Automatic annotation (TrEMBL):
Organism: Geomesophilobacter sediminis
Superkingdom of the organism of origin: Bacteria
InterPro entries registered for this protein in UniProt: CHAD_dom, CHAD_dom_sf
Protein name, entry field: CHAD domain-containing protein
Domain CHAD, residue spans: 7-284
Length: 295
């Protein structure tokens, strides 16, 4: 991939950076289809999300709604790959609960693990069948066609000849704003919806920095690690909310089920406390600002 510098014109940088994301996406597609391993499926899903973020980021650089249409097709793949993720993570969490935590809900915990394991086997077979039935060639052709036709002349939404750093500063700022707006609500433990939305906003900002990594130099690793810590914590918070719903839906209303829900609630409380500590140690609201300053 050609190198990108601070002064590279936007239209050239957009094509180059998207090309890199596209190569990664199709490479992970091939690996996931060949092995169907948990790690390969996960990597493919992340690559699909990052490519969608790249298409959203550089949509003004290409004609009409081509980038949007391509993004929707890739979103279908992302959703398909996500069908197994929650089940896998739930099985891991319930299997790793300590003996002390499950002393009064061991039967319910084992029943839930068995139910989820059966569901995973069914979902795995269906996903394997669907994934292997999909042909990447049409999507690859559409992606190449998009890159070959940057919007340079005529009516344009952004100046295609501006330095990429000018565009990147505003692009990071847009994702940064979404993060900053949600922090006050997310500090309150009971605001699960705000924490969920913040998780998504942090993820979008993280992907945007990953795409623009060539412009961030030595600061990238530190900024990326900070966002990763927040995404991991907020992701675990959201998982516990999802897993509590799984327990309610798949287990009869017993004292053991209520005890299991209390265990999940206690874990959630501890995670939210860790999130609040992290806000003080590594202020989330400053990461986007630091990224813009690093350009």
């Amino acid at each position: 991939m050609a190198s990108i510098t601070a002064t590279t014109p936007l239209w050239i940088a957009a094509g180059t950076l998207l090309t890199g994301q596209g190569k990664e996406f199709f490479t992970h597609w091939r690996k996931a289809g060949a092995s169907f391993g948990v790690d390969e499926i996960h990597d493919f899903r992340v690559a699909s999300r990052r490519l969608r973020e790249g298409l959203a980021l550089f949509a003004p650089c290409f004609p009409g709604k081509d980038a949007s249409r391509l993004g929707k097709k890739i979103k279908h793949l992302t959703q398909l790959l996500g069908t197994m993720r929650n089940t896998d993570e739930a099985i891991i969490l319930f299997s790793e609960l300590s003996e002390a935590e499950t002393r009064e809900c061991r039967e319910e915990t084992e029943q839930l693990i068995a139910t989820l394991t059966r569901e995973r086997e069914s979902v795995s077979k269906e996903l394997r069948r669907e994934l292997r039935s999909l042909d990447p060639a049409p999507l690859r052709s559409a992606f190449r066609a998009l890159r070959r036709h940057p919007k340079i002349f005529g009516p344009v939404e952004v100046d295609p000849f501006q330095p990429i750093t000018n565009f990147a500063e505003g692009a990071i700022g847009a994702r940064e704003l979404a993060v900053r707006e949600l922090i006050p609500q997310a500090k309150h433990e009971e605001q699960a919806e705000a924490q969920h939305r913040l998780r998504i906003a942090v993820k979008h900002l993280r992907y945007r920095l990953e795409i623009l990594e060539p412009l961030l130099g030595d600061d990238f690793a530190r900024l990326h690690q900070g966002l990763k810590r927040y995404q991991d914590l907020l992701g675990k918070l959201h998982d516990l909310d999802v897993f509590a719903d799984l327990a309610r839906e798949r287990l009869s209303e017993t004292a053991g089920r209520e005890q299991l829900l209390e265990v999940l609630s206690a874990r959630r409380k501890a995670l939210h406390a860790a999130f609040c500590r992290l806000l003080k140690e590594t202020p989330l609201k400053s990461i986007g600002e630091q990224a813009r300053a690093a350009l």
